């Protein structure tokens, strides 16, 4: 069921995984954020942010992209300045997709995957993908505006069996 935090402002999402075994194709995981407006909160995203797509107003930023999971600690970092998002945006969903270019890859095949969501030094969520081991993509977090305009956070790990493109279009389809 996960946690519920109200009044979140600037949030950092980090993702880690271990590289694929030597000699095998690299495992490339991607953090994807999708924004939604009040007109269509569970439909198509207003815009998405990932390694190849920036937010038009700079409020959601992919600070670090890894294509192979090499290195220590967290490999990808996304920052959301929810407190700066224009009022038209009422919902933001964050997910993780595994690139499928070398054949179908699921979370269960990637070693040591995990994510952490923080506001400043407060950890809002820290978890792995064991619950969606058979999936190729998963949402991890949902942020929604409440009646007063503040943002609420919910951890929302939900698996999808799609490639990253299809996932980006579908990840907002149901509430957390
Ligand atoms: Ca990546």
From TrEMBL:
InterPro entries: Stress/Tellurium_Resist (IPR051324), TerD (IPR003325)
Superkingdom in the source lineage: Bacteria
Any matching Pfam family: TerD
Signal peptide region: none
Record domain TerD: where: 5-163
Similarity remark: Belongs to the CAPAB/TerDEXZ family.
Designated name of the protein: TerD-family protein
Source organism: Streptomyces agglomeratus
């Amino acid at each position: 069921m996960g946690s519920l935090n109200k009044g979140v402002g600037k949030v950092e999402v980090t993702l880690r995984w271990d590289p694929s075994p030597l000699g095998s194709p690299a495992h490339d995981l991607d953090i994807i954020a999708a924004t939604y407006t009040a007109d269509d909160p569970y439909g198509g995203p207003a815009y998405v942010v990932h390694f190849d797509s920036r937010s038009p107003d700079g409020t959601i930023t992919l600070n670090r992209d890894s294509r192979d999971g090499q290195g220590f600690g967290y490999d990808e970092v996304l920052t959301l300045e929810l407190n700066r998002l224009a009022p038209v945006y009422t919902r933001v969903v964050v997910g993780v997709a595994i690139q499928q270019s070398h054949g179908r890859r699921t979370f269960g095949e990637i070693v040591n995957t995990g994510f952490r969501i923080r506001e400043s030094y407060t950890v809002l969520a820290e978890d792995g993908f064991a619950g969606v081991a058979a999936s190729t993509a998963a949402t991890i977090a949902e942020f929604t505006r409440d009646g007063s305009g503040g943002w609420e956070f919910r951890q929302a790990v939900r698996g999808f069996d799609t490639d990253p493109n299809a996932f980006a279009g579908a990840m907002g389809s149901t509430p957390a």
